[in-house]
Batch of 2 targets.
Target 1
Amino acid sequence: MADIFNFIFGVVRNIFRMFSSSRNPLNNSLNIFIKCNTGNTLTVGLDPKWDIKDVKNIIAPKLGANPDEVKIIFAGKELDDSIIIEDCDLGEQSTLHAVKLKDLSIRATKQKKCSLLRETVEDEDEITLLQEKNNRDKSHFYVYCSVCAAMKIGKLRIRCSKCKSGAFTVDTDPKSWNDVLKPNKISGHCEQNDCPDGVFGWAQFYFRCAEHICQGENDIAVPLYLLKNNLRKIPCLACTEIKDIVFVFTCREAHVTCLECFRVYAVLRLRERQFVLDDSFGYTISCPVGCENSLIDECHHFKLLTKEQYEMYQKFATEEYILKAGGVLCPQPGCGEGIIVDLKCDKIVCVNGCGYVFCRKCLQGYHIGECNSVDNNISIDNIQHVTDPAKALQARWDEATNVAIRVTTKPCPKCRTATERSGGCMHMICTRCSFHWCWVCQIEWSRDCMGTHWFG
Amino acid sequence: MASPSPSERRLQKELSSLMKDPPPGVSVDANAVYQHLNLWNVHMKGADGTLYQGEDFQLQFRFSSKYPFDSPEVTFVGDNIPIHPHVYSNGHICLSILTDDWSPALSVQSVCLSIISMLSSCKEKASTLSIEKH
């Protein structure tokens, strides 16, 4: 009996040990790539307790140089000799850049205090370094990582905008998201031997997911720059709770919601088709208060929704784009393929979809001459062979749905979108074309409607 | 039990803040609200020095699960519906913040204040019948 307990205890302890060591790889050796400006890449196992001086001692012989002649660059900064590796925020399989100096005199002028690039970029107002230190564990960038398929903590990285080499040092730190997202804002110096820019170049910023082991140069993540750490303890606009991570809209008031309320808000507006199709930002929404200049301009923020909801977002966005471009959507149930054809053409073939041929005007099967009334039930009398009319009526695929739609909805008088009135007054506002109409009269909403049957 | 939705958490907070710091003449039947968080009965007294002085009104707030991203449905209920150009005899209120101008930054408290000020600024008791004649 005691053996069994010992065995179980041992297993649990081992699992726990595995768990804790995988959570904290810094306890052991760290596998790091060191890229040299000569073109070689070395893989080295570094002790996280080492400082940069130790790294230089290892690297220098491989570059054929003295340790003094070597510069170690990481995330746009030259690392000072005294910096300890575990303070650098290096993940497993990160890349450091080693450069052999051509001229030692350059070095003296370039020597500056080395603050590591891990701080949150804050718009307009900088957060002081002291505050940064206090919130060290909390200050992060958020990214959408396609490898993890989720929102993750991100790391800001820098490379030369010309040759894409990471052996690049910046002249100043980025002060705002504008500096990071827009090209040619922060200047610097590329150390890559064959780079055409060399002495003066522009920094290019990009992000990596901090939560999986880097899978190479192209493993980059999209910054979700509207997400911020709630260092200022701002309550959510909707639920009024103070959450750690918040969504900050771009309006002048910079309205704040928590992530949960952002999701609720976005899904509500999506289902009601209240997103707008903006020429420069795409299919998007504004801040819940409806402020000016608050449209979300990076659609990856909608990746915060579930996979199904994001697919719905993509589908609706495509449909709206096609309709705006003068196209039509195939009316066959289950198809809905978007088709863009000449405006004068009424006979439309669903070429890339189901092959259905239909009339642009009435969206029924194609016909010659004027459109019939909408109700085009197939007359059972026309069928040659003998069937039981009652059974044939019951055996119609999806007929119940069609009937339900016909009974419970009325078409918008302008765009014909089937509309259901679930409650409230008779004043309808079309969710697709924003036409104001009257549920009773099925024409444009008027003062007469307001006076006689506003509430039924 | 499932944790409360954002909408429920918001209503809980609004309820306690309305009970702690109600606008003048406003009170809420908290016990009834605890039964149905999405249906509130709010008592409102006509403000002193206005046409509605000495009158008592009852407001009903109905919240959908979309609250606060959608406005609450607010109507006067009970025996005494105020006679006011923007209030229908069935209790419906014509107030822009209850429809087009609603924003999730508004609250039960701010809606109550708007309704109080709408009543208080009235110079002459007239019903909405005048609209119907147009």
Target 2
Amino acid sequence: MASKIEDVVASLVSSAPPGELSQAATDLGALLSGRANQSIINTALESYATEEGAIVAGNYVISKHSKLAGSTKYIDYVSGKAFNVDLKANKVLDVEDHNVSDKVSSISYFDSLVKALNQYGEDHFPSLYAFNVIPDGSDLHIIIVGQRVNPDNFYTGQWRSHYVVSQGKDTINGDVSLDIHYYEDGNVRLTFGEKLKDTTVSENASAIVNAIDEFESTTSMTIVGKFEELNQKSFKNLRRLLPVTRSKIQWGKAIGNYRLGSDVVNKK
Amino acid sequence: MSYESKFDAALDAVRRLDPKQISSNLNHIISLVQADDSVDQDSKDDLTQDLLLSIDQPLKVNTCKESGKEYLCCDYNRDGDSYRSHWSNKYYPSVDEDAPYPPEHLRQLEIKANDAFDIYRDLYYEGGLSSVYLWESEEDEDASQLLDAGFVGVVLFQKKNEGGKWDSIHVVEVIPETKALALYKITSTVILDLSGAQSTKPGQLSLSGSLIRQLEASCSLTIEGATNLETAHLINLGQLVEKQEYNIRNLLQEVYFDKLKDIFLKDVRSIGDVGDKKLEDAKHSQVIKGLQAL
């Protein structure tokens, strides 16, 4: 039974909007109040957040790739800090300086990449923006998160990208996901994902960020096109705004006349 | 934790979690409710029952063996694992004798309402399914066997196409005010899933969820052309459901295609340079200020 509750909580947490993890955790906490189960929720939150990469406290990006070995902490290579996270409170704790120079120094363009990604954020991400650049053997992970949390107007939205530059191979792979939640008088969710596969890129900061910019801008245009396609092809055909007669129905005894009319048409 | 705060937490969770997985999320939440050892079984079952009634799920389709026709199923025509067909007034799979049925006067109105909304369905949906179910107001179960006592009902529509699925659920309570006037309280939910079967594949946009609208209206029961109370209720119900669906369809259009796109491009990731847009916004507000100064 115990393991089953863990699965149930993990499944619920994984369907929460990225910008509303702490609210979802609070709700689940209330439902599980009778048991000493709050740690199950924290475990589920952390594994969901770090699997995909998540923004914490507005300016750090954590991922399973940035976990400090043998510790509960995560490393932010951009600022050279390590910290614990409290995802339920959306906070970082126990922040300390962490020496990243031995890992970072092997990448000659690391500093210029950080600078270029900062500029990229200023150009394209109007709300919260953070990224992490994580050296991992011959792989260089770049995780970007742009997020907007607007509870006053009942919406949250997040763009997340995860790229891997394979050093010495001149290639970049990656995926992006968009997740928007609108919940005024309802619950509406947008999701979209796209992959970047084995694209050639020179191993320098501007080439990498240009490749990311090009892929993400093309993907954004694709999404705008899909809105139009779903509107025209799917939505419009589900229910008419008005009947063919372009007027509302005459209810009452005479309503049978509509059927008479269509029978006459069908029998022709 | 009290019953109320658990109920509220469950509703808030359902409002936040992925609406495309509403049924499995609801089942999971109920299993958490049932797993709470600090609460007695009766109150766990009460909470489960109330959640099933409060949270609208996509409509199921069942086949009526007697008529051979399909009908829509929700918690309101359910008894155990069986659902009552409006075509034959029978439950499928069949049930014990104590399953609830509407009294004769409401069954007669139910048949006529199904006829009328079937025509509505044809005119607006050009396909799909519709079902209407009526039952007695709770307070009046032992009282009048007449329509004067009011009633409760649900009007359902479902339409599918290649790219999407639409479920409408209108729960209506009719409360008599005077001989000539009744109060109609209607809660309308439309569950609209535009994700298609391919939505988990890369490159597919999924828009999915539901919007809810409530309306209360006092309507006349002495309408021109309505020779009896039955017809008056049919006209009022028809007009109210038609009005609700018109408004919600416009709202869905606005939220799914304008609002979400705006949030994406203005709040999450802009295609053009954010700096350019800030400049544009500044110019725009200068123009407005200029106009206001005139």
